[in-house]
Structures are given as structure tokens and as C-alpha cells.
Description:
Structural class: alpha+beta
Amino acid sequence: MTRTFQAQSAQTTPAIATDTEIQLSPPWHVVVLNDPVNLMSYVVVVFCKVFGYTHQKARKHMLEVHQLGRSRVWSGDREKAEAYTYTLHQWQLTAILEQDD
């Protein structure tokens, strides 16, 4: 006596459909504040060295600092923003972190 078995394909579908939502943390901003100590040309050089900005872009941010009292020079992840802020402090610039609202 020979028995023949047929494989049955069982398809399962989830009873409940779920959506996955990834929530990213808001960006952090590195803001350079005006100070009466550093020369404008020095600030331009620092922006070029630290952020790799062109002379024109660095000058634009320097003028914002000079005229408006502050300039947002970089935005992104908190860890990198903290590192940039620390680096700017090492160059004797006044910089702070702000979180995006």
C-alpha cells in the first residue's frame, strides 16, 4: 500500500495591518554670537577652517554675526552640533546650541 502526500501551501496574512512610523529628533543649530574681541577677518578664517565654507559664505555668516548679533552657522544631529560648538570655543568664538522647535 502506497500513500501519496500532497504538500499544501499555507499562506498567512496578518489579521491587523500596522504602520511603522519613524520619528526623527529635530535638528540642533550651532549659533555664533557677536563678541567685541575677535576681528572679523579672524571669524571668516575660523568658519572656513571649521566648516569648510567658501570665503564668500564665511563672510556672509560673519556679517550676520556682526550686524544681527548672531548667525546660525550649522544645523543637524545633536552630537555633531556639540562637537562644532566645542571646536568653535577652542577657536575662542562664542557659540551656543539651540534645538529646533
